[in-house]
Every structure is written in C-alpha cells, then in structure tokens.
Amino acid sequence: MESVYSQAIKFKKKYPRTITHHRLLKHAQVIEKHLNPGEVVSYAFPAQKNAKAGDFFETCIVAITNERLLIGQKRVMFGYFLTSVTPDMYNDLQVRSSLIWGALTIDTVKELIELSNIDKRALPEVETAISSFMMEAKKQYAKSDSNK
After folding, report:
1. CA–CA dist 22, 59 (Å, integer)
2. Could you tell me which of 56, 60, 85 has the C-alpha nearest to residue 74?
3. For 16-75, how does the pLDDT look when each residue is reduced to its tens digit (9 = 90+)?
C-alpha cells in the first residue's frame, strides 16, 4: 500500500501548479492516524481548504479510501483538523476552473467543503476519482438499505 504522503507528492509532481507548502507529511500523518482497520487509501491529493484563491496557508490533504473521503490538516502549533465524508452524507461535487487554478466544492448534508488552488489540469482526474468512489459507494448503501 502506497502511503498518503507519497501519493500526495506524486500528485504534486504531476500537477506542479497546485499550491501547497512544506507540511504535507504532517497532513498525511493526520489522515493515517485516523484510518480504520482494513481501510485503504486509493487516491490522495493536496489542496487549500478554503474558498479564496489568494489564501495559500490552509493546505490540507484529501484522501479517498475504500470507506470514505478524509481531509487532514495539521495546525502549525497544536492539534489538527480532520473532516470525514461518508457516502451517505455526500450530496454533490462542483468543479470550477479559472486561468491557472481550479476549485472544488463538496456538498454534504451538513456543510460545503471548499478546496481551492488545485492545478486546473488536475480537475478532471480529481473529479473522476471522487465521483467514481461516491457513486459506487452509494450503490452499496442502497443495497444494504433494501436488505433491511
């Protein structure tokens, strides 16, 4: 299994215009700390967790696992933030592209999650990874609900 950090670095090398800072390893450790037994990360990428293209200080790593979507963000001094989106809470995904960067809005039952400053060439790949996982996982939820 490839680590979250190595997947994020691979993404960053493939799409170098994505804005990140040097704390990717710390963000990846937040995600790895919260993986459930048997949970495997299939795709990970860095982004800025905010809606402002001019704000470069909210770097996070987004990871798609076989169970859910995780967003890990280590704070500079103490603590961290972790957002978990399970398929039953996921509503929709919006992709926006501009001149250099793109942004995603993940609509959940509880909140809108804004991810920005992603290399616009990466947007189709990221959208496909998230949408494909969520569509398949929602089918599994529908099957389990009909068996009850």
Report:
1. 9
2. 60
3. 999 887 789 999 999 999 999 999 999 999 999 987 666 667 899 999 999 999 999 998
Ranges assigned E (strand) in 1-148: 41-48, 59-65, 69-74, 80-85, 90-97, 101-108, 112-119
Rounded to 5 degrees, φ, ψ at 31 are -65, -45
* Rg for the chain, CA atoms, rounded: 15
Q: How far apart are CA 97 and CA 95, in angstroms?
A: 7
For residues 143 and 129, give the distance between their C-alpha atoms in angstroms, rounded to a whole number. 22
Q: Are 115 and 85 in contact (CB under 8 A)?
A: no
d(CA 57, CA 116): 11
Measured between alpha carbons, how far is 52 from 35 in angstroms, rounded to an integer? 29
pTM over 0.85: yes
Report d(CA 148, CA 146) in Å as an integer: 5
Asked if 88 and 144 count as a contact pair (C-beta separation under 8 A), the reply is no
Is 50 strand, coil or helix? Answer: coil
